[in-house]
Amino acid sequence: MRPGQHRQGDDAAKSAGRLKVGFVLARSFTLSAFALFVDTLRLASDEQDRSGRVLADWQVIGSTRHLITASCGVQVAPTSDFVDPSKFDYIVVVGGLLTVENPVDQETIAFLKQADAKKVPLIGVCTGSFILAEAGLMKRHDSCVSWLHYKEFRERFPDLSVRSDRLFNLDRQRGSCAGGSSSADMAALLVRKCISRDAERNALEVLQIEKARTSADIQPRRPLYDDYDDARVKAAMITMEQFVDGSMSIQKLAATVGLSRRQLERIFIDKTGMSPAKAYNRVRMERAKSILAQSKAPMIEIALDVGFENASQFTRTFKRTFGQTPSQHRAAASRAH
Questions:
Q1: How are the residues of the chain apportioned to helix, strand and coil, as percentages rounded to the nearest 5?
Q2: Strand ranges (DSSP E) for 208-331?
């Protein structure tokens, strides 16, 4: 089965066969990203946490059966040698530390290229998208990476499309996600598409996840300051995030980084192209945008959270910043779910 060939309900899933996923683990891979992905499959595959491989199956595949050490020191043994990649519905590459040279061997790269040739969808989890990009397998596809790794991806692969504003992305024959808890969200999407919503719900309930986030959800903690190199600008914008209710005056903000207000304004105009006040407003609006997409909080509550006295003032500022009202943004995010 390929993405788009969705099964309808549990009965159809049982008759059509199991969702089959192969995992390729890089050296110093991120354990949490792998564990959350595979456990979502495990819990979706059976009822009441019985761990039976009824509706899904998975293997950790590798060029050898040698233990693979995660970045935290825990070791995982491959459960299968490389086999015909078309035996899997998806192959998931779990990356980890970017400082590791040759995170996978040449036999693994050859296997991934073989999977691509056979039209098996490839998914990069955490920094797994770096491995796919290095192998030349992300051309004409978007890569979704953590904001922590966005700059390095751009530097390594300047000709490839990358984004760090979303949790994950499924782009035709490729998928990618930022890692961490978003691994469970992406796995839940595959379960919903390939097995059923009931299976997805069962997995999320056992994992104590209220609701799976979608590819339209914004990465938490995506700091605006990451775009700027000046340490004083970064420090000031971190402080803005800490006082997202707007309670920090520009005068006090300047003092926190050892500058006068006039000096801070000159540096911001020079380094960011906007005043500290405008940057502060942008930080507050980005926080509001995130809350709107991820919660059902009343508009007035969100307005107060980001330092506005009333909802109408907040609505005007939000529309001026993003070109749509908060209600319109929430409705669009809801449709994406």
A1: 45, 15, 40
A2: none
Look up residue 4 and give its amino acid.
Answer: G
pTM for the predicted model, two decimal places: 0.67
* CA distances to 57, 81, 206, 253, 288 from 241, in Å: 43, 48, 33, 12, 12
Q: Are 142 and 163 in contact (CB under 8 A)?
A: yes
Indicate the angle between helix axes 276-294 and 231-242, nearest 10 degrees.
50
Distance CA 76, CA 66 (A): 9
Q: Quick one: CA dihedral 10, 11, 12, 15, positive or negative?
A: positive
What is the per-residue pLDDT across 212-245, written as a single tens digit (0 to 9) for each?
888 877 676 556 666 778 889 988 988 888 788 9
Do 216 and 185 form a contact (C-beta atoms < 8 A)? no
DSSP classification of residue 136: T
Residue 5 has pLDDT above 50, yes or no: no
